[in-house]
Amino acid sequence: MTRIRPLTEEEAGPESRHHFAKDRAANGTVMPSTGLHAYCPPILDAVKALGPAIEQSGRVSRELRCLLNVRAASMVGCPF
After folding, report:
1. What DSSP string runs through the chain?
2. CB 32 within 8 A of CB 6
3. Within 10 Å of residue 35's Cβ, how many Cβ atoms?
4. 67 assigned to some structural domain
5. Which has the closest alpha carbon to 19: 71, 42, 62, 3?
6. Which of 15, 48, 49, 63 has its CA 20 to 30 A from that of 57?
7. Highest-scoring range by mean pLDDT, 34-43, 47-56, 59-68
8. pLDDT the model gives residue 1
9. What is the pTM of this model?
C-alpha cells in the first residue's frame, strides 16, 4: 500500500499519458508506479527508460533479470 495516491490517467498531464497506454498494452493494467511517478513527468520518463536500458546493455542476463524481478516483487509483497 502506497502512502501517496497514484495519479489516474485523467489526472496525469498529457506528457505522461503515453506511459499509461504502454503499461496497459504490456500488462493489461496500469502499474501503480506509473501513477506515482506521473507527479513528476521527467522522473516518470527516466524510470520508464531504465528497464530497457539495462536490458539493451547486455550486462545482465535475461535469467538473472527474471530472478531479480521475482525477488523485488516478493520484497514488496507481490504474489507472483
Report:
1. --SSPPPPTTTS-TTTHHHHHHHHHHHSS--HHHHHHTTSHHHHHHHHHHHHHHHHHT-S-HHHHHHHHHHHHHHTT---
2. yes
3. 23
4. yes
5. 42
6. 15
7. 34-43
8. 58
9. 0.77
In angstroms, the Cα distances linking 52 to 7, 36, 48, 49, 72 are: 23, 20, 8, 6, 17
CA–CA distance from 71 to each of 21, 23, 59, 76 (Å)? 26, 21, 19, 9
Please report where in the chains the cell 513527468 appears, as a residue. Answer: 41
On whether residue 33 sits in a domain, the answer given is: yes
Phi/psi of residue 15, each to 5°? -75, -10
**Contact present, 54 and 60 (Cβ < 8 Å):** yes
